[in-house]
Design goal:
The chain is an all-alpha fold. The protein has one domain. It has one helix at residues 2-69. It is rod-shaped, with a radius of gyration of 30 Å. The protein starts with a helix and ends with a helix.
Length: 70
């Protein structure tokens, strides 16, 4: 009986250790997802600014081309 209890305790300890390891891994992955989400939002903002600059430059180019044709 004592041997069975020891085996059960060992199994339980191993399972608890695995659960803790999975929880730690999950926390790490959650942090990575949060960081990637923040980077994505920053990239979207940068892309929006670049698109605005591109549009402005294209408009200036059209104006210059129009003036050159005159």
């Amino acid at each position: 009986m004592s041997n069975e209890n020891d085996d059960l305790k060992n199994q339980l300890n191993k399972t608890v250790s695995k659960v803790k390891a999975y929880e730690t891994k999950d926390e790490g992955m959650t942090m990575q997802v949060k960081q990637l989400s923040e980077e994505l939002e920053a990239s979207k903002g940068n892309a929006e600014k670049l698109n605005e600059k591109l549009k402005s430059v294209e408009e200036e180019k059209e104006e210059l081309e129009s003036e050159m044709k005159k």
